Amino acid sequence: MNPDLKIAQSITPKNIDLIAQSINIDINVLEHYGKYKAKLPINLIDENKIKSCNLILVTAITPTPAGEGKSTTTVGLADGLNRIGKKTIAVLREPSLGPVFGMKGGATGGGYSQVIPMEDINLHFTGDFAAVEKANNLLSALIGNNVQSKTRNLRIDPRTVTWKWVMDMNDRSLRNIVSGLGGKEGGFPRESGFNITAASEVMAILCLAKDLSDLKEKFANIYIGDTFNGQAIYAKDLNAQGAMASLLKDAIKPNLVQTLEGNPAIIHGGPFANIAQGTNSLIATKMGMSSADYVVTEAGFGADLGAEKFYNIKCHYGKISPKAVVLVATVRALKYHGSVPKNELTKPNNTALVKGMANLDKHVENLKRFGIPIVVSINKFSTDTLEEIELIKNHCKEIDVPVALSDGWALGSKGTSALAELVVEAVANCKGTYKPTYENTWSIKDKISAIAKDIYGASKIEYLPKAESIIKRAMTLNYQHLPICMAKTQSSLSDNVDLVGRPTHFGITVRDMEIAAGAGFLIPITGKMLRMPGLPEIPAAEQIDIDANGVISGLS
Q1: Do 118 and 132 fall into the same domain?
Q2: How does the average pLDDT of the chain come out, rounded?
Q3: Containing structural domain, residue 14
Q4: What percent of the chain has pLDDT over 90?
Protein backbone atom coordinates (compact mmCIF):
# COMPACT_ATOMS: atom_id res chain seq x y z
CA MET A 1 0.00 0.00 0.00
CA ASN A 2 1.17 3.52 -0.74
CA PRO A 3 2.61 4.98 2.50
CA ASP A 4 0.57 8.21 2.15
CA LEU A 5 -2.68 6.26 1.92
CA LYS A 6 -1.65 3.95 4.75
CA ILE A 7 -0.91 6.93 7.01
CA ALA A 8 -4.20 8.62 6.06
CA GLN A 9 -6.18 5.46 6.78
CA SER A 10 -4.49 5.06 10.17
CA ILE A 11 -6.03 8.30 11.47
CA THR A 12 -9.61 8.54 12.68
CA PRO A 13 -10.87 11.96 11.60
CA LYS A 14 -12.71 14.25 13.96
CA ASN A 15 -16.39 14.84 13.29
CA ILE A 16 -16.64 17.79 10.93
CA ASP A 17 -18.82 19.63 13.48
CA LEU A 18 -15.80 19.83 15.80
CA ILE A 19 -13.67 21.27 13.01
CA ALA A 20 -16.30 23.92 12.31
CA GLN A 21 -16.57 24.83 15.98
CA SER A 22 -12.78 25.28 16.17
CA ILE A 23 -13.09 28.24 13.78
CA ASN A 24 -16.32 29.56 15.31
CA ILE A 25 -18.67 28.35 12.57
CA ASP A 26 -22.17 27.44 13.71
CA ILE A 27 -22.70 23.74 12.95
CA ASN A 28 -26.31 24.47 12.03
CA VAL A 29 -25.20 26.23 8.83
CA LEU A 30 -23.12 23.28 7.62
CA GLU A 31 -24.31 21.17 4.72
CA HIS A 32 -23.02 17.74 5.73
CA TYR A 33 -21.60 15.21 3.28
CA GLY A 34 -21.24 12.42 5.82
CA LYS A 35 -19.34 12.78 9.10
CA TYR A 36 -16.10 14.26 7.78
CA LYS A 37 -17.02 16.68 4.99
CA ALA A 38 -19.32 19.69 4.82
CA LYS A 39 -20.10 22.61 2.55
CA LEU A 40 -20.00 26.16 3.87
CA PRO A 41 -22.53 28.87 2.96
CA ILE A 42 -21.08 31.83 1.08
CA ASN A 43 -22.63 34.35 3.46
CA LEU A 44 -19.98 33.45 6.05
CA ILE A 45 -17.50 35.57 4.07
CA ASP A 46 -16.69 38.76 6.00
CA GLU A 47 -14.78 41.42 4.06
CA ASN A 48 -13.81 43.25 7.26
CA LYS A 49 -12.14 40.14 8.70
CA ILE A 50 -10.41 39.52 5.37
CA LYS A 51 -8.61 42.85 5.66
CA SER A 52 -6.89 41.78 8.89
CA CYS A 53 -6.05 38.20 7.86
CA ASN A 54 -2.50 37.17 6.92
CA LEU A 55 -2.61 35.40 3.55
CA ILE A 56 0.38 33.20 2.70
CA LEU A 57 1.02 31.88 -0.81
CA VAL A 58 2.92 28.63 -1.38
CA THR A 59 4.55 28.19 -4.78
CA ALA A 60 7.54 26.30 -6.14
CA ILE A 61 10.49 26.16 -8.49
CA THR A 62 9.93 24.62 -11.92
CA PRO A 63 8.33 21.17 -11.43
CA THR A 64 10.18 17.97 -12.22
CA PRO A 65 9.12 14.31 -12.58
CA ALA A 66 10.44 13.78 -9.04
CA GLY A 67 7.79 16.05 -7.52
CA GLU A 68 8.36 19.04 -5.22
CA GLY A 69 5.70 18.61 -2.52
CA LYS A 70 3.89 21.93 -2.72
CA SER A 71 0.62 20.58 -1.27
CA THR A 72 2.56 18.73 1.42
CA THR A 73 4.29 21.98 2.34
CA THR A 74 1.02 23.91 2.33
CA VAL A 75 -0.66 21.48 4.71
CA GLY A 76 2.47 21.09 6.82
CA LEU A 77 2.92 24.84 7.15
CA ALA A 78 -0.72 25.30 8.19
CA ASP A 79 -0.24 22.63 10.86
CA GLY A 80 3.06 24.23 11.90
CA LEU A 81 1.46 27.66 12.30
CA ASN A 82 -1.28 26.14 14.43
CA ARG A 83 1.39 24.39 16.47
CA ILE A 84 3.07 27.70 17.34
CA GLY A 85 -0.24 29.24 18.35
CA LYS A 86 -1.45 30.91 15.15
CA LYS A 87 -5.09 30.27 14.20
CA THR A 88 -4.58 28.99 10.67
CA ILE A 89 -6.59 27.39 7.85
CA ALA A 90 -5.15 25.63 4.81
CA VAL A 91 -7.00 26.39 1.56
CA LEU A 92 -6.29 24.10 -1.38
CA ARG A 93 -7.59 23.07 -4.81
CA GLU A 94 -9.62 19.93 -5.42
CA PRO A 95 -7.74 17.15 -7.21
CA SER A 96 -8.66 16.26 -10.78
CA LEU A 97 -9.28 12.62 -11.68
CA GLY A 98 -7.03 13.08 -14.71
CA PRO A 99 -3.78 13.26 -12.71
CA VAL A 100 -5.15 10.91 -10.01
CA PHE A 101 -5.53 8.13 -12.58
CA GLY A 102 -2.66 9.37 -14.74
CA MET A 103 0.86 10.19 -13.67
CA LYS A 104 0.87 12.76 -10.89
CA GLY A 105 -1.45 10.98 -8.47
CA GLY A 106 -3.57 12.73 -5.86
CA ALA A 107 -3.25 16.22 -4.45
CA THR A 108 -3.94 15.95 -0.74
CA GLY A 109 -0.38 16.34 0.52
CA GLY A 110 1.73 13.46 1.74
CA GLY A 111 3.06 11.59 4.77
CA TYR A 112 1.99 13.31 7.98
CA SER A 113 1.06 16.52 6.19
CA GLN A 114 -2.21 15.56 4.50
CA VAL A 115 -5.83 16.56 4.31
CA ILE A 116 -8.40 13.88 4.97
CA PRO A 117 -10.52 11.91 4.12
CA MET A 118 -7.82 11.35 1.51
CA GLU A 119 -9.69 8.84 -0.67
CA ASP A 120 -12.86 10.95 -0.86
CA ILE A 121 -11.00 14.16 -1.69
CA ASN A 122 -8.96 12.50 -4.44
CA LEU A 123 -11.95 10.78 -6.03
CA HIS A 124 -15.45 12.27 -6.35
CA PHE A 125 -15.35 14.33 -3.12
CA THR A 126 -18.61 16.35 -3.03
CA GLY A 127 -19.31 16.29 -6.77
CA ASP A 128 -18.02 19.76 -7.66
CA PHE A 129 -16.07 18.62 -10.72
CA ALA A 130 -19.07 16.66 -12.01
CA ALA A 131 -21.24 19.79 -11.71
CA VAL A 132 -18.67 21.86 -13.62
CA GLU A 133 -18.54 19.21 -16.32
CA LYS A 134 -22.35 19.13 -16.66
CA ALA A 135 -22.66 22.92 -16.83
CA ASN A 136 -20.00 23.10 -19.53
CA ASN A 137 -21.54 20.33 -21.61
CA LEU A 138 -25.02 21.81 -21.23
CA LEU A 139 -23.76 24.86 -23.09
CA SER A 140 -22.24 22.57 -25.73
CA ALA A 141 -25.63 20.90 -26.16
CA LEU A 142 -27.46 24.25 -26.41
CA ILE A 143 -25.03 25.43 -29.08
CA GLY A 144 -25.60 22.32 -31.16
CA ASN A 145 -29.35 22.54 -30.66
CA ASN A 146 -29.45 26.13 -31.89
CA VAL A 147 -27.40 25.37 -34.97
CA GLN A 148 -29.86 22.56 -35.75
CA SER A 149 -33.02 24.63 -35.09
CA LYS A 150 -35.20 25.75 -38.00
CA THR A 151 -37.16 28.35 -36.03
CA ARG A 152 -34.75 29.88 -33.48
CA ASN A 153 -31.45 29.57 -35.33
CA LEU A 154 -29.08 32.45 -34.52
CA ARG A 155 -27.11 31.66 -37.69
CA ILE A 156 -24.05 30.62 -35.68
CA ASP A 157 -21.18 29.75 -38.01
CA PRO A 158 -20.07 26.31 -36.72
CA ARG A 159 -16.57 27.00 -38.02
CA THR A 160 -16.17 29.81 -35.48
CA VAL A 161 -17.43 27.92 -32.44
CA THR A 162 -14.56 27.66 -29.98
CA TRP A 163 -16.49 26.05 -27.13
CA LYS A 164 -15.51 22.43 -26.42
CA TRP A 165 -16.89 19.59 -24.33
CA VAL A 166 -15.01 18.69 -21.14
CA MET A 167 -14.31 15.54 -19.19
CA ASP A 168 -12.42 15.07 -15.92
CA MET A 169 -10.11 12.43 -17.31
CA ASN A 170 -6.97 12.26 -19.43
CA ASP A 171 -7.81 10.99 -22.93
CA ARG A 172 -5.68 12.17 -25.87
CA SER A 173 -8.10 10.63 -28.40
CA LEU A 174 -10.68 13.31 -27.51
CA ARG A 175 -8.49 16.34 -28.18
CA ASN A 176 -9.79 16.71 -31.70
CA ILE A 177 -13.02 15.13 -32.89
CA VAL A 178 -15.72 15.51 -35.51
CA SER A 179 -19.23 15.67 -34.10
CA GLY A 180 -22.66 15.73 -35.69
CA LEU A 181 -22.27 12.64 -37.86
CA GLY A 182 -25.22 10.37 -38.67
CA GLY A 183 -27.25 12.40 -41.15
CA LYS A 184 -29.87 15.06 -40.49
CA GLU A 185 -30.84 13.64 -37.11
CA GLY A 186 -27.25 13.92 -35.89
CA GLY A 187 -26.90 17.66 -36.30
CA PHE A 188 -24.39 19.55 -38.41
CA PRO A 189 -20.93 17.98 -38.69
CA ARG A 190 -18.17 20.16 -37.26
CA GLU A 191 -14.69 19.85 -35.86
CA SER A 192 -14.53 20.10 -32.09
CA GLY A 193 -12.90 18.35 -29.16
CA PHE A 194 -12.62 17.97 -25.41
CA ASN A 195 -10.66 19.85 -22.77
CA ILE A 196 -10.02 18.40 -19.34
CA THR A 197 -12.51 19.81 -16.81
CA ALA A 198 -9.77 21.62 -14.88
CA ALA A 199 -8.96 23.62 -18.03
CA SER A 200 -12.54 24.67 -18.74
CA GLU A 201 -13.79 28.22 -18.64
CA VAL A 202 -16.63 27.07 -16.37
CA MET A 203 -14.03 25.96 -13.81
CA ALA A 204 -12.21 29.27 -14.20
CA ILE A 205 -15.47 31.16 -13.67
CA LEU A 206 -16.38 29.10 -10.61
CA CYS A 207 -13.02 29.95 -9.08
CA LEU A 208 -13.33 33.70 -9.72
CA ALA A 209 -17.03 34.23 -9.00
CA LYS A 210 -18.09 36.19 -5.90
CA ASP A 211 -21.51 34.59 -5.49
CA LEU A 212 -24.33 32.95 -7.47
CA SER A 213 -25.41 36.21 -9.13
CA ASP A 214 -21.86 36.94 -10.23
CA LEU A 215 -21.49 33.33 -11.41
CA LYS A 216 -24.59 33.66 -13.59
CA GLU A 217 -23.42 36.98 -15.01
CA LYS A 218 -20.03 35.50 -15.90
CA PHE A 219 -21.72 32.53 -17.58
CA ALA A 220 -23.85 34.95 -19.62
CA ASN A 221 -20.67 36.59 -20.97
CA ILE A 222 -19.06 33.40 -22.27
CA TYR A 223 -17.99 34.01 -25.87
CA ILE A 224 -19.08 31.13 -28.11
CA GLY A 225 -18.27 32.20 -31.66
CA ASP A 226 -19.71 34.31 -34.44
CA THR A 227 -22.64 34.35 -36.81
CA PHE A 228 -22.14 34.07 -40.57
CA ASN A 229 -22.32 37.87 -40.58
CA GLY A 230 -19.51 38.21 -38.06
CA GLN A 231 -21.65 39.09 -35.03
CA ALA A 232 -20.34 37.76 -31.71
CA ILE A 233 -22.53 35.19 -29.95
CA TYR A 234 -22.54 34.71 -26.18
CA ALA A 235 -24.06 32.17 -23.80
CA LYS A 236 -26.70 34.75 -22.90
CA ASP A 237 -27.92 34.69 -26.51
CA LEU A 238 -28.85 31.05 -25.87
CA ASN A 239 -30.38 31.83 -22.46
CA ALA A 240 -27.90 29.36 -21.00
CA GLN A 241 -26.69 31.18 -17.88
CA GLY A 242 -29.60 30.37 -15.57
CA ALA A 243 -29.53 26.61 -16.14
CA MET A 244 -25.73 26.52 -15.96
CA ALA A 245 -25.69 28.38 -12.65
CA SER A 246 -28.45 26.10 -11.32
CA LEU A 247 -26.20 23.10 -11.88
CA LEU A 248 -23.56 24.78 -9.72
CA LYS A 249 -25.81 25.91 -6.87
CA ASP A 250 -24.06 23.52 -4.48
CA ALA A 251 -20.68 23.36 -6.22
CA ILE A 252 -20.15 27.08 -5.63
CA LYS A 253 -19.97 26.44 -1.87
CA PRO A 254 -16.48 25.58 -0.54
CA ASN A 255 -15.77 22.30 1.26
CA LEU A 256 -14.61 22.05 4.86
CA VAL A 257 -12.35 19.12 5.81
CA GLN A 258 -9.34 18.69 8.12
CA THR A 259 -5.65 17.89 8.25
CA LEU A 260 -4.28 14.73 9.85
CA GLU A 261 -3.65 16.82 12.98
CA GLY A 262 -7.27 17.91 13.14
CA ASN A 263 -6.77 21.45 11.90
CA PRO A 264 -9.33 23.01 9.51
CA ALA A 265 -8.83 22.94 5.76
CA ILE A 266 -10.98 24.30 2.95
CA ILE A 267 -10.82 22.69 -0.47
CA HIS A 268 -12.59 24.10 -3.50
CA GLY A 269 -12.13 24.38 -7.24
CA GLY A 270 -9.30 22.95 -9.27
CA PRO A 271 -8.02 24.80 -12.34
CA PHE A 272 -4.59 23.69 -13.58
CA ALA A 273 -1.92 26.39 -13.63
CA ASN A 274 -0.34 25.31 -16.93
CA ILE A 275 -3.62 25.71 -18.87
CA ALA A 276 -5.82 27.79 -16.52
CA GLN A 277 -5.37 30.20 -13.56
CA GLY A 278 -4.13 27.50 -11.18
CA THR A 279 -5.58 28.45 -7.79
CA ASN A 280 -8.50 27.43 -5.58
CA SER A 281 -11.65 29.50 -5.69
CA LEU A 282 -11.69 33.09 -4.58
CA ILE A 283 -14.71 32.19 -2.44
CA ALA A 284 -12.70 29.49 -0.62
CA THR A 285 -9.74 31.80 -0.01
CA LYS A 286 -11.98 34.55 1.33
CA MET A 287 -13.90 32.02 3.44
CA GLY A 288 -10.63 30.98 5.06
CA MET A 289 -9.59 34.60 5.55
CA SER A 290 -12.94 35.28 7.25
CA SER A 291 -12.38 32.51 9.79
CA ALA A 292 -8.69 32.56 10.74
CA ASP A 293 -5.76 34.84 11.47
CA TYR A 294 -3.54 33.08 8.92
CA VAL A 295 -4.48 31.35 5.67
CA VAL A 296 -2.02 29.19 3.75
CA THR A 297 -2.92 28.62 0.13
CA GLU A 298 -1.10 27.33 -2.95
CA ALA A 299 -0.81 28.08 -6.64
CA GLY A 300 -0.20 25.26 -9.10
CA PHE A 301 3.11 24.24 -10.68
CA GLY A 302 6.06 26.67 -10.64
CA ALA A 303 6.00 30.33 -9.67
CA ASP A 304 6.25 31.32 -13.35
CA LEU A 305 2.74 29.91 -13.82
CA GLY A 306 0.76 29.57 -10.58
CA ALA A 307 2.19 32.50 -8.64
CA GLU A 308 2.15 34.84 -11.64
CA LYS A 309 -1.54 34.08 -12.27
CA PHE A 310 -2.32 34.21 -8.56
CA TYR A 311 -1.09 37.79 -8.43
CA ASN A 312 -2.17 39.12 -11.83
CA ILE A 313 -5.57 37.40 -12.06
CA LYS A 314 -6.82 36.19 -8.67
CA CYS A 315 -5.50 39.03 -6.54
CA HIS A 316 -6.56 41.52 -9.20
CA TYR A 317 -10.17 40.36 -9.26
CA GLY A 318 -10.39 39.48 -5.57
CA LYS A 319 -8.71 42.67 -4.33
CA ILE A 320 -6.53 40.64 -1.98
CA SER A 321 -2.78 40.46 -1.46
CA PRO A 322 -0.57 37.91 0.34
CA LYS A 323 1.76 39.03 3.10
CA ALA A 324 4.36 36.32 2.48
CA VAL A 325 5.20 33.80 -0.24
CA VAL A 326 6.86 30.43 0.36
CA LEU A 327 8.98 29.06 -2.48
CA VAL A 328 9.28 25.26 -2.29
CA ALA A 329 12.47 23.64 -3.52
CA THR A 330 13.91 20.16 -3.13
CA VAL A 331 17.38 18.70 -3.41
CA ARG A 332 16.12 16.28 -6.05
CA ALA A 333 14.48 18.96 -8.20
CA LEU A 334 17.55 21.20 -8.12
CA LYS A 335 19.75 18.29 -9.22
CA TYR A 336 17.29 17.59 -12.04
CA HIS A 337 17.65 21.19 -13.16
CA GLY A 338 21.38 20.61 -13.01
CA SER A 339 20.90 17.93 -15.72
CA VAL A 340 20.79 14.79 -13.54
CA PRO A 341 18.48 12.07 -14.98
CA LYS A 342 15.40 11.12 -12.95
CA ASN A 343 16.77 7.66 -12.07
CA GLU A 344 19.93 9.17 -10.51
CA LEU A 345 18.39 11.92 -8.38
CA THR A 346 18.86 10.04 -5.10
CA LYS A 347 22.64 9.93 -5.63
CA PRO A 348 24.71 12.80 -4.18
CA ASN A 349 25.84 15.24 -6.87
CA ASN A 350 26.87 18.58 -5.50
CA THR A 351 28.05 19.91 -8.86
CA ALA A 352 24.62 19.37 -10.42
CA LEU A 353 22.92 20.74 -7.30
CA VAL A 354 24.84 24.00 -7.53
CA LYS A 355 24.15 24.23 -11.26
CA GLY A 356 20.43 23.67 -10.71
CA MET A 357 20.20 26.56 -8.26
CA ALA A 358 20.00 28.88 -11.25
CA ASN A 359 16.36 27.80 -11.52
CA LEU A 360 15.78 28.72 -7.87
CA ASP A 361 17.45 32.08 -8.45
CA LYS A 362 15.16 32.95 -11.36
CA HIS A 363 12.03 32.17 -9.34
CA VAL A 364 13.35 34.25 -6.43
CA GLU A 365 14.00 37.15 -8.82
CA ASN A 366 10.49 36.81 -10.25
CA LEU A 367 8.83 36.74 -6.84
CA LYS A 368 10.78 39.78 -5.69
CA ARG A 369 9.20 41.70 -8.57
CA PHE A 370 5.84 41.40 -6.80
CA GLY A 371 7.22 43.06 -3.67
CA ILE A 372 6.05 40.46 -1.13
CA PRO A 373 8.52 38.88 1.38
CA ILE A 374 9.86 35.46 0.35
CA VAL A 375 10.81 32.39 2.39
CA VAL A 376 12.45 29.38 0.73
CA SER A 377 11.27 26.02 2.02
CA ILE A 378 13.49 22.97 1.43
CA ASN A 379 11.03 20.09 1.33
CA LYS A 380 13.04 17.23 2.82
CA PHE A 381 13.30 13.72 1.36
CA SER A 382 14.92 10.78 3.12
CA THR A 383 17.63 10.55 0.44
CA ASP A 384 18.84 14.12 1.01
CA THR A 385 22.27 14.46 2.61
CA LEU A 386 23.18 17.07 5.21
CA GLU A 387 25.80 18.44 2.85
CA GLU A 388 23.24 18.95 0.08
CA ILE A 389 20.84 20.71 2.44
CA GLU A 390 23.60 22.97 3.72
CA LEU A 391 24.57 23.89 0.17
CA ILE A 392 21.03 25.15 -0.48
CA LYS A 393 20.88 26.99 2.85
CA ASN A 394 24.21 28.71 2.20
CA HIS A 395 23.11 29.67 -1.29
CA CYS A 396 19.92 31.24 0.05
CA LYS A 397 21.99 33.24 2.53
CA GLU A 398 24.13 34.49 -0.36
CA ILE A 399 21.06 35.74 -2.23
CA ASP A 400 19.60 37.13 1.02
CA VAL A 401 16.46 35.01 1.24
CA PRO A 402 15.32 33.34 4.50
CA VAL A 403 15.32 29.55 4.26
CA ALA A 404 14.08 26.68 6.43
CA LEU A 405 14.08 22.92 6.20
CA SER A 406 10.55 21.54 6.02
CA ASP A 407 10.07 17.94 7.16
CA GLY A 408 6.28 17.82 7.34
CA TRP A 409 6.07 14.55 5.41
CA ALA A 410 7.92 12.61 8.13
CA LEU A 411 7.18 14.69 11.23
CA GLY A 412 4.00 16.67 10.61
CA SER A 413 3.90 20.02 12.41
CA LYS A 414 7.06 19.19 14.37
CA GLY A 415 8.92 19.28 11.08
CA THR A 416 7.45 22.59 9.92
CA SER A 417 7.58 24.72 13.06
CA ALA A 418 10.85 26.38 12.03
CA LEU A 419 9.35 27.25 8.65
CA ALA A 420 6.25 28.60 10.40
CA GLU A 421 8.37 30.89 12.58
CA LEU A 422 10.14 32.32 9.53
CA VAL A 423 6.82 32.86 7.76
CA VAL A 424 5.40 34.78 10.75
CA GLU A 425 8.52 36.97 10.67
CA ALA A 426 8.10 37.52 6.92
CA VAL A 427 4.46 38.52 7.40
CA ALA A 428 5.51 41.07 9.99
CA ASN A 429 7.99 42.55 7.48
CA CYS A 430 5.44 42.95 4.69
CA LYS A 431 5.29 46.63 3.76
CA GLY A 432 2.32 46.78 1.41
CA THR A 433 0.40 45.06 -1.35
CA TYR A 434 1.72 43.26 -4.42
CA LYS A 435 2.97 44.95 -7.58
CA PRO A 436 1.42 43.53 -10.78
CA THR A 437 3.52 42.36 -13.73
CA TYR A 438 1.58 44.60 -16.09
CA GLU A 439 -1.23 47.11 -16.16
CA ASN A 440 -4.42 45.87 -17.77
CA THR A 441 -4.57 49.11 -19.78
CA TRP A 442 -1.57 47.89 -21.76
CA SER A 443 -2.02 46.28 -25.17
CA ILE A 444 -2.50 42.51 -25.38
CA LYS A 445 0.95 41.95 -26.85
CA ASP A 446 2.62 44.19 -24.28
CA LYS A 447 1.04 42.17 -21.46
CA ILE A 448 2.14 38.90 -23.05
CA SER A 449 5.62 40.36 -23.52
CA ALA A 450 5.86 41.36 -19.86
CA ILE A 451 5.10 37.80 -18.77
CA ALA A 452 7.28 36.11 -21.38
CA LYS A 453 10.31 38.37 -21.04
CA ASP A 454 10.22 39.42 -17.37
CA ILE A 455 8.87 36.22 -15.79
CA TYR A 456 10.03 33.48 -18.18
CA GLY A 457 13.22 35.19 -19.37
CA ALA A 458 12.40 34.94 -23.10
CA SER A 459 14.33 37.08 -25.57
CA LYS A 460 11.64 37.14 -28.28
CA ILE A 461 7.99 36.26 -28.94
CA GLU A 462 6.58 34.86 -32.18
CA TYR A 463 2.87 34.93 -33.04
CA LEU A 464 1.51 32.41 -35.51
CA PRO A 465 -1.24 33.58 -37.89
CA LYS A 466 -4.06 31.94 -35.90
CA ALA A 467 -3.01 33.74 -32.73
CA GLU A 468 -2.69 37.04 -34.59
CA SER A 469 -6.22 36.63 -35.96
CA ILE A 470 -7.75 36.00 -32.53
CA ILE A 471 -5.85 38.92 -30.99
CA LYS A 472 -7.44 41.15 -33.63
CA ARG A 473 -10.85 39.66 -32.86
CA ALA A 474 -10.35 40.25 -29.12
CA MET A 475 -9.53 43.89 -29.84
CA THR A 476 -12.60 44.23 -32.05
CA LEU A 477 -14.74 42.92 -29.19
CA ASN A 478 -13.02 45.38 -26.79
CA TYR A 479 -11.31 42.69 -24.68
CA GLN A 480 -7.83 44.17 -24.86
CA HIS A 481 -8.19 45.28 -21.21
CA LEU A 482 -8.44 41.73 -19.86
CA PRO A 483 -5.63 40.02 -17.89
CA ILE A 484 -3.54 37.30 -19.54
CA CYS A 485 -3.68 33.62 -18.59
CA MET A 486 -0.77 31.96 -20.40
CA ALA A 487 -1.05 28.29 -21.35
CA LYS A 488 2.53 26.97 -21.18
CA THR A 489 4.35 23.81 -20.21
CA GLN A 490 5.03 23.54 -16.50
CA SER A 491 8.30 21.66 -17.11
CA SER A 492 10.38 24.65 -18.21
CA LEU A 493 10.59 28.40 -17.84
CA SER A 494 10.38 28.35 -21.64
CA ASP A 495 7.68 26.74 -23.80
CA ASN A 496 10.05 23.86 -24.59
CA VAL A 497 9.87 20.95 -22.11
CA ASP A 498 13.48 20.02 -22.79
CA LEU A 499 14.95 23.32 -21.57
CA VAL A 500 15.41 22.72 -17.83
CA GLY A 501 17.30 24.86 -15.34
CA ARG A 502 17.40 28.52 -16.27
CA PRO A 503 17.35 28.69 -20.06
CA THR A 504 18.51 31.84 -21.86
CA HIS A 505 18.25 33.24 -25.40
CA PHE A 506 15.01 31.40 -26.14
CA GLY A 507 11.82 32.44 -27.84
CA ILE A 508 8.16 31.92 -26.94
CA THR A 509 5.76 30.90 -29.71
CA VAL A 510 2.11 31.89 -29.30
CA ARG A 511 0.37 29.54 -31.71
CA ASP A 512 -3.25 30.03 -30.64
CA MET A 513 -5.45 32.17 -28.44
CA GLU A 514 -8.76 31.77 -26.63
CA ILE A 515 -11.11 34.52 -25.51
CA ALA A 516 -12.42 33.61 -22.04
CA ALA A 517 -14.70 36.61 -21.72
CA GLY A 518 -16.82 35.00 -19.01
CA ALA A 519 -13.83 34.24 -16.81
CA GLY A 520 -12.36 37.63 -17.61
CA PHE A 521 -9.04 36.81 -19.24
CA LEU A 522 -7.37 35.93 -22.54
CA ILE A 523 -5.53 32.62 -22.99
CA PRO A 524 -2.47 32.67 -25.26
CA ILE A 525 -1.53 29.05 -26.03
CA THR A 526 2.22 28.57 -26.39
CA GLY A 527 4.42 25.85 -27.81
CA LYS A 528 2.94 22.35 -27.81
CA MET A 529 0.72 22.97 -24.78
CA LEU A 530 -2.48 20.88 -24.90
CA ARG A 531 -5.64 21.41 -22.83
CA MET A 532 -6.48 17.70 -22.77
CA PRO A 533 -3.62 15.60 -21.35
CA GLY A 534 -3.01 11.96 -22.21
CA LEU A 535 -2.38 9.00 -19.93
CA PRO A 536 1.19 7.75 -19.41
CA GLU A 537 2.28 4.33 -20.61
CA ILE A 538 1.59 2.89 -17.16
CA PRO A 539 -1.34 4.89 -15.69
CA ALA A 540 -1.69 5.21 -11.93
CA ALA A 541 -5.19 3.78 -12.37
CA GLU A 542 -3.69 0.31 -12.86
CA GLN A 543 -2.47 0.34 -9.24
CA ILE A 544 -5.75 1.41 -7.62
CA ASP A 545 -8.05 -1.25 -6.19
CA ILE A 546 -10.86 -1.73 -3.69
CA ASP A 547 -11.59 -4.75 -1.51
CA ALA A 548 -14.90 -6.34 -0.52
CA ASN A 549 -15.13 -4.06 2.50
CA GLY A 550 -14.75 -0.90 0.43
CA VAL A 551 -11.14 -0.21 1.50
CA ILE A 552 -9.18 1.46 -1.30
CA SER A 553 -5.53 0.71 -2.02
CA GLY A 554 -2.93 2.01 -4.47
CA LEU A 555 -4.10 5.62 -4.38
CA SER A 556 -1.22 8.07 -4.16
Answers
A1: no
A2: 95
A3: 3-124+256-428
A4: 88
